[in-house]
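For the sake of transparency, this paper describes our internal protein records without simplification. Because each token names a local backbone shape, the row as a whole describes the fold. One such record is reproduced below, unchanged from the form in which we store it:
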Amino acid sequence: MTKPDIENKKLTRCFIALELSREAIDKIEEIQKLIKKKNLFYGKFTEPENLHLTLKFLGEIEENKIEEIKKVLAKIKFGEFEVKLGEIGVFINKYNSILWLKLNGPEIWNLQKEIDNELKGILPLEEKFMSHITIARMKKISNKIEFLDYIKNIKVEKIKFSVKQFTLKKSELKSEGPSYENLKTFDSD
């Protein structure tokens, strides 16, 4: 394949996600407001409409592969299952740290593994899956000790909700933040 052929291929940034219930999103917004009041970091909170759990990040995908991925995902059979919000935590690194909420339920792991296995002929296997919802991206934490102490004392109400589907999403990165579009939704049996 020549360089112009590669440059002419349209790539779409994609991921597979679980949507959250309205009640779970409302609870996350309450937590975000509590943390905002403390003003302990510089960064950006995830907008309510963008809150989700990523089951698998696919990266930049060629248009023709998206149709193949949809066909593979359509074969996955799963029953409706219940999940609940879990504890709050943080991934801290040098450049961009993540504030997250865990989403608990063994079926999440089963569904993620099945998606991963079904797509292994098309995409690499997931190296490290953790069932979390990104609620903020932090560029700079003013006082890490104070921040971590505050975070570990936040009590998260264990909101439960049913998962009846997962979604293949398109992601466009814009200066004001990411924009997501549903490409296809896959329902439980």
